[in-house]
Design a protein that fits this description.
By secondary structure, the chain is α+β, with helices and mostly antiparallel strands. The protein has 16 helices and 17 strands. It has helices at about 20-35, 40-50, 75-80, 85-90, 115, 130-135, 200-215, 265-280, 320-330, 360-370, 400-415, 420-425, 435-450, 470-480, 495-505, 515-520; strands at about 10, 55, 140-145, 155-165, 170-180, 220-225, 230-240, 250-255, 285, 295, 300-310, 310-315, 335-340, 345, 345-350, 355-360, 455-460.
């Protein structure tokens, strides 16, 4: 294979034991090439010397490599043939590459444009594997020689992590590279003390959206760049840069800030973010139940802030307050104003007149493609009403039952309650599944495939209603006295035993385990 002409020579064979014969053919072709057979006729002769040799040239790039023995031919043919491929010259048609598949990742080294101008095709994809990730964290490193590190200190290794960021339609948004610390070698009590960092729940996101609809607020969101690097470490940690990376002539460094991968990085960033938000406005209050939720309730101003690691949802009726807040936040920590909320936790959000539409069509499309169900037969129901499921042995590790079940649980919780009953039933067989259960699970996915554009609609309500006592109690505790709530709150229940106990409490063997505080708590 030649990266300039994109010539690829592939030997097709049925068995791995044929590699030796293919290598012998390769030696013969190389000898012919070195003997001066650099003309189209020579290429024609090589192509027809043995039926097992095929040269594929044309609109190919380095990722069109099949399992075989590719080798480099000369760079003369395409230029001499006015950039017409040898295959097209002989066959009078372009090569069919549909049978070839990608092996490995699409990674290309970064080459300066001055060198690349006559070296690589302009359509080639680039992955800039240079010093950019190191530049991002240079302020968090105090470089030093390895022998200058304190005696007996443990050097933590670092790794280069590549990540693809997707939009709400699960389409490529950008490629990211980041240097992270391998925190698995940190020792508790020496390298860190506390690691717990509060995190936002899905129910808190729903609370913010519903409150915004009912109070006439606009929900904005903002993103903080390299958030963890903005917090200072209290412990002394020393690291070693990834292999091949050198900064200032050294590979050893002392960490000054919480680089990604450090166990306490999340907690340090939460403390830093919390201190800024609480100190920005004297009217700001933090929820005692949801530590990531902040409120401002004034005569004319209403603000709700929800912190989700490095993403912030701000629901407010004061656009000027939000703009000032973003400017002040950016003066301390680099951040981007992303405008009105359209994506959170992988859930697409679309706003209407007093209505919010939640969708996961992009997530569902990716899940359907992952499990090869794009061409599955349509399903009108997520589960057959006549199905009978027996216990399986759960030993067939080739079935990705629990992985697919976990993805369906997330979809059911976020935007598709119509499959919640199916997911609940199939969750009973998490360790006792079999082929029958996996078929039922695929039917649920097929149903979602045909209805992936369905949206969960949230509207304003004249009076709140509750369907789950525990969830309603949590919401009441979160809102506390910050938002006016209609009381008493109506509860809807279809459990006849619970209804009878609510109206006429009876102490018997079936109810004596229920604590008094649960029966009479207001």
């Amino acid at each position: 294979m030649d990266d300039s002409t994109t010539w690829i020579c592939i030997y097709f064979h049925k068995h791995k034991s044929d590699y030796l014969e293919a290598f012998k053919l390769h030696i013969v072709a190389v000898k012919r090439h070195r003997s001066g057979m650099d003309s189209p006729e020579a290429c024609h002769m090589i192509l027809h010397t043995d039926g097992d040799i095929t040269i594929i040239v044309g609109q190919t790039t380095a990722f069109y490599v099949a399992l075989g023995c590719p080798f480099q031919l000369n760079r003369f043919f395409r230029r001499s043939l006015d950039w017409t491929s040898a295959y097209y010259l002989i066959k009078k048609k372009h090569a069919d590459l549909s049978q070839l598949r990608i092996i490995g990742c699409l990674a290309y080294p970064f080459i300066a444009s001055s060198v690349r101008e006559h070296k690589l095709n302009n359509r080639a994809c680039e992955l800039r594997m240079n010093q950019e990730p190191l530049v991002q964290i240079k302020g968090a490193l105090l470089m030093m020689k390895e022998e200058d590190a304190p005696a007996g200190v443990k050097l933590l290794d670092m790794s280069l992590i590549l990540k693809v960021k997707l939009d709400k339609h699960r389409q490529l948004l950008k490629r990211k590279s980041r240097i992270c610390v391998r925190g698995n070698k940190q020792e508790c009590g020496v390298d860190y003390i506390e690691t717990l960092a509060p995190c936002t729940q899905l129910s808190s996101v729903m609370i913010v959206i519903v409150l915004a609809l009912n109070l006439g607020l606009v929900v904005y969101h903002m993103d903080v760049d390299t958030a963890f690097l903005n917090s200072v470490l209290e412990e002394d940690l020393y690291v070693r840069l990834p292999r091949g990376l050198v900064y200032g002539g050294h590979r050893c460094a002392k960490l000054l800030e919480a680089v990604y991968g450090v166990k306490q990085a999340g907690r340090e960033w939460f403390d830093t973010s919390d201190a800024f938000i609480m100190g920005y406005d004297s009217r700001m209050q933090r929820s005692d139940v949801a530590p990531c939720l902040y409120f401002i309730k004034d005569t004319e101003l209403m603000v709700i802030i929800l912190a989700y690691v490095d993403v912030y949802l701000v629901a407010t009726n004061g656009k000027s307050w939000y703009d000032t807040f973003v400017v002040a936040f950016h003066s301390w920590y680099a951040c981007k104003d992303l405008g009105i909320l359209d994506l959170v936790m992988g859930i697409g959000v679309r706003w209407g007149d007093g209505t919010a539409y939640l969708s996961q069509s992009g997530y569902l499309s990716q899940m359907i493609g992952t499990y090869g169900l794009a061409d599955a037969r349509p399903a009108t129901l997520p589960m057959s009403p006549s199905i009978t499921l027996a216990l399986g042995d759960g030993k067939d590790v080739s079935l990705p039952y629990r992985a697919l079940l976990g993805q369906l649980q997330w979809v059911a919780r976020c935007s598709r309650p119509d499959v919640m009953a199916t997911v609940s039933i199939l969750s009973r067989f998490g360790t006792t599944y079999g082929p029958q259960h996996f078929v039922a699970l695929k039917q649920a996915v097929t149903y979602l495939k045909d209805t992936k554009d369905y949206e969960l609609v949230l509207r304003t309500a004249p009076a709140p209603r509750g369907y789950g006592a525990r969830e309603v109690k949590y919401i009441l505790n979160v809102l506390d006295s910050r938002v006016d709530i209609y009381r008493p709150l109506p509860m809807y229940c279809d459990n006849q035993g619970t209804i009878h106990l609510a109206f006429d409490y009876v102490n018997n063997s079936r109810s004596k385990h229920i604590e008094v505080r649960n029966m009479y708590e207001g």
